[in-house]
Write a structure and sequence with these properties.
40% helix, binds adenosine monophosphate, binds zinc ion, BirA Bifunctional Protein, domain 2, three-stranded antiparallel sheet, 12 strands, 11 helices
């Protein structure tokens, strides 16, 4: 625990991240952002021959699509929704009074039609569905989004707002599975180039509640999720920096994404936790990027 706090404090002391009054909500320095941008270029170079299009999403997702995703069934503890003031002058006066007296001013805020994006690939699926059946080659999309998860923590690697870069494959089951296996290998190649110790292991998502335990075990048994982990906060419990997910036809069915033959599409995605990968680099190679190993610098900065 002390070790985690001290790494976070070192990052603040060196001006790599900037603290706020909220755990897991930090401003990023220019150098931190540069490392992320360089890493994204590296990751994109691995998928460039297959990618059919690229998208960057804002951090919000239409509420309807958020509902369709099933996120509130599986991960209600992590979700965030956008609420806004929708009142009249009288309501505004009440709000100002609450603010002045330190009472809860948020109780009359109303849900908007936007939820915070919990996973970078969710906004993609409704876009693909609206286009009608996929071509026979399916879709292969490079994307990036800020994500929100309500998991406040002083572990520097567990933020409430962070970015995921993803590649997403949509097509038949063979295409999705092959994609997932390819990226498991590529993820390890990328980490080798960055000289970061890692291994890939079977994993499960943090499904909520008692039913969630069963869902987590079933996800593991079916080997639907793998994570590439790197020791960052401790050797004993390394941190997931990438995930390799096969969703079967769950999202195809939820959003009604069709293959060329009319059947529901299968999907898979690889997600890179951009802040975690930057933190792994700072943890293993030091807080001064000029002192990072020459070959790592070459891979990132050319
Ligand atoms: P997941 O959708 O949970 O598989 O997450 C994909 C990747 O995003 C993970 O492997 C992490 O690298 C990253 N990630 C997930 N949650 C967080 C978080 N709270 N803070 C920072 N990065 C995260
Ligand atoms: Zn995804």
């Amino acid at each position: 625990m002390d070790k985690q706090i001290s790494f976070l404090d070192q990052l603040f002391d060196r001006g790599i991240l900037y603290d706020s009054a909220v755990d897991g909500l930090y401003a990023r320095s220019g150098i931190f952002e540069d490392v992320i941008a360089r890493f994204e270029d590296l990751a994109k170079s691995f998928g460039k021959d297959e990618t059919s299009e690229a998208m960057v999403f804002p951090p919000g997702l239409p509420m309807k699509d958020f509902e369709t995703s099933g996120y509130m069934k599986n991960f209600p503890q992590l979700a965030g929704t956008v609420h806004a003031f929708c009142g009249n002058d009288h309501d505004h006066a009440g709000l100002l009074q609450c603010l002045a007296s330190g009472e809860d001013w948020t109780k009359n805020q109303k849900a908007t039609d936007i939820a915070l994006t919990p996973a970078a690939c969710y906004p993609l699926y409704p876009i693909l569905a609206r286009r009608g059946p996929l071509p026979a080659t399916g879709a292969y999309v490079a994307l990036q989004s800020y994500c929100y998860r309500h998991e406040p923590s002083r572990e520097p690697t567990r933020m409430q707002m962070f970015r995921q870069r993803e590649f997403v494959r949509v097509g038949n089951s063979e295409q999705a599975i092959e994609f997932r296996e390819t990226w498991k290998k590529r993820g390890q190649e990328i980490m080798k180039l960055l000289q970061l110790p890692c291994h890939v292991e079977v994993a499960n998502d943090p499904f909520f509640g008692r039913a969630g335990k069963i869902m987590g075990s079933s996800q593991r048994e079916q080997e639907l999720k793998f994570e590439l982990v790197v020791p960052i906060n401790s050797e004993a419990s390394p941190t997931a920096c990438m995930s390799f997910n096969y969703h079967m036809d769950n999202f195809g069915k939820a959003w009604n994404i069709r293959q060329a033959d009319g059947s529901h599409a299968y999907t898979a995605c690889v997600g890179f936790g951009l802040e975690r990968i930057a933190l792994a680099l700072f943890r293993h190679h030091g807080l001064e990027t000029e002192n990072w190993p020459t070959n790592v610098r070459k891979v990132l900065w050319g």
